[in-house]
Amino acid sequence: MDYEVVGANVRASYREVSPKYRDDDEIEVTTDNHRHISRILRDISCSFERPIAVLDVGCGTGRYFHCLQNVAQLVGIDISPDMLKAAESPVRASEVTAQEIQLLCDNAYLASFEPASFDFIYSLGMFGNACPVTVDICNRFYDWLRPGGRLFFNVVDLATIPFKYRLRKRMRRLLYPVLPRSIKRTLDERQQWLPFFGMTRKELQRLMRQTPFQQYAVSSHVCSSPLWRGTLLECSATK
Questions:
Q1: What's phi and psi for 229, nearest 5 deg?
Q2: pTM, whole model, 2 decimals?
Q3: How many CA atoms lie within 13 A of 28 on its CB side?
Q4: What is the reported pLDDT for 225?
């Protein structure tokens, strides 16, 4: 997978919709779904006995900045400069308590941070939509975390996607090796645009077993936000 090509496509797709995302923030923060996520982020960030360094991967418009506490440094990374511009004035800005915030326009799959840079890394709403959870990205997270550091992310639960879509996805995977080169090229080009990378619980657990994380847990959360309805897999891990 060419992450530079996909990254360029994601960047282009957000160019005109970033204002809508910022407006959606005002709706989402009033929902039970947001309160659920807020509790998790607050509890994890408060579990350390000292102010911490946090990395928000795919931070978008900064929707979750106000959920964090006990933060000395918050780094938000996103592929879209338009989303990062909106993140300069995030929702509930008066409740943001991070002492220092740095916004970086970069591709998380290609970005580079010094080892042991962060105490807490989280990624919400990024994985599944054009962005796959991979062993490599989890290895990067592990490397960027300090000993005892925490990771939290979610991904669309493929098991809850309509059966017709899941069947088509499986058939593509099975038939791809024997397809003519011209058809493979067409499928590859389509896949590079904005591919969907949902996962089942078993797939996510299998993937996590291939990473250095020894302590991790996968759970399901039904999202009933007016902005999106479906089931998300939530993974929490400790280095």
A1: -125, 130
A2: 0.86
A3: 25
A4: 83
